[in-house]
Amino acid sequence: MACACDLESVREIVRGRPLARLPGAPEWVRGIMNLRGTLLTVVDLSMRLGGSPDGMPRIVMVVEGAGKRFGIGVESVQGVAELADGSLELVDAQRSAGGVVGGLAHLADAEGGTAQWCEVEAIAREALAIE
After folding, report:
1. Would you list the domain boundaries of the chain?
2. Other beta carbons less than 10 A from residue 38's beta carbon
3. What is the fold of 2-127?
4. Which one, out of 7, 20, 42, 89, has a CA that is 20 to 30 A from the CA of 106?
5. Residues near 17 by Cβ (< 8 Å), separated by ≥ 6?
6. Which residues does 82 contact at the CB level (< 8 Å), separation at least 6?
7. Is the pLDDT of residue 41 over 80?
8. With a threshold of 0.70, does the pTM exceed it?
9. DSSP letters of 38-81?
10. What is the pLDDT of residues 77-119, one digit of tens each?
11. What is the β-pairing status of strands 68-74 and 29-35?
């Protein structure tokens, strides 16, 4: 399933780079990458949400959450869409994957479809062990 997040959290989108594994980190925290001299933790949301690893991410969305920058590895970026009023369906705690998924975004673009609305702040707190 596609994922979406608040555009204000996204800082840039870059090609994937080699990752150095972090000992003791959960498997979905894929490692760290060097981005112009800055080390960024890179996570795999697909794995965090129960999917299987697809190798190293082809694209990394550099995002900011809980005051920290980190990367979300993705296969592709489909674009930017504005959500119409009422198109975000909040999910209950049982379906929120520990608070990482805040809702289901019902997209009104040409293809339509639904994306899991991911909470960048929650991902940052979990991946980067921020209290």
Report:
1. 2-127
2. 10
3. OB fold (Dihydrolipoamide Acetyltransferase, E2P) (2.40.50)
4. 42
5. 33, 34, 35, 60
6. none
7. yes
8. yes
9. EEEEEEEHHHHTT----SS-SEEEEEEETTEEEEEEES------
10. 888 888 877 888 888 887 778 888 888 888 776 566 888 888 8
11. unpaired
